[in-house]
Specification:
226 residues; alpha/beta; Arc Repressor Mutant, subunit A; 2 domains; 12 strands
């Protein structure tokens, strides 16, 4: 599950953002000051940060240069063009002005998460004894090649990037829509069923677990024999 850190001292805006993000299947954590955000970032690295500028203590402008390898969307009431340009050149991935349209902000978040994920597309993925080719819809398990459909490949790639984590159905659909527009909520279950069968045939056991009412997860470790 993708994790988004909200850094904003306004509880009303933070609550609004958290409700919208959790409703889309994201994990959310919050910081109310730049200093608190520093401490949280030492403990866990989120997939994306929503950063207000006018924070108590350490400001957003001061915090931004310290954030490395994480896309940051600045969400601020400051509308000065020079300020926007400076922040974008200084490392921000995007800039959204308050008051914002939630639908637009969610779309910008999706775009930045996809762009960041694309940085890893050139690397073969591997977990639990299964490897996935970076440039072809082929997986390998126990020395056996498994040919995948375009949709199965996109689903497995997402699950392998997050081994052991439950990925909600809505997140799967949102993340693979660009690569597989034919996959719908109605057909997702069948695509995953077909993928599970192929992996089970090669591995001799299930590698994808359905978590009722939520989504699916890749089983990274083999359970101990009873």
């Amino acid at each position: 599950m993708e994790h988004i850190l909200i850094i904003d001292d306004d509880p009303d805006i933070g609550n609004l953002l958290e409700e919208a993000l959790t409703g889309r299947g994201y994990a959310v954590s919050r910081a109310y000051s730049g200093t608190e955000a520093q401490l949280l970032l030492l403990q866990k690295k989120p997939n994306l940060i929503l950063l207000d500028l006018m924070l108590p203590g350490l400001s957003g402008e001061e915090l931004l240069p310290q954030i490395k390898g994480i896309p940051v969307i600045v969400v601020s009431a400051k509308i000065d063009i020079d300020n926007k340009v400076s922040l974008l050149l200084g490392g921000a991935a995007d800039y959204v002005t308050k008051p914002f349209n939630m639908k637009e902000l969610l779309a910008r978040i999706t775009v930045q998460l996809r762009r960041h994920a694309d940085l890893y597309d050139a690397r073969p993925l591997s977990a639990g004894g299964i490897s996935l080719e970076a440039d072809a819809p082929i997986a390998t398990a126990n020395g056996e090649q498994i040919r995948l459909t375009r949709t199965e490949y996109a689903i497995l790639k997402l699950l392998l990037r997050n081994p052991g984590q439950v990925i909600p159905r809505t997140t799967i659909l949102n993340r693979i829509t660009e690569d597989t527009p034919d996959c719908t909520e109605a057909s997702l279950k069948q695509h995953i069923s077909n993928l599970r069968k192929k992996l089970r045939s090669a591995c001799g056991r299930d590698r994808i677990e359905a978590v009722w009412g939520i989504g699916f997860r890749f089983i990274r470790e083999q359970p101990p024999e009873q």
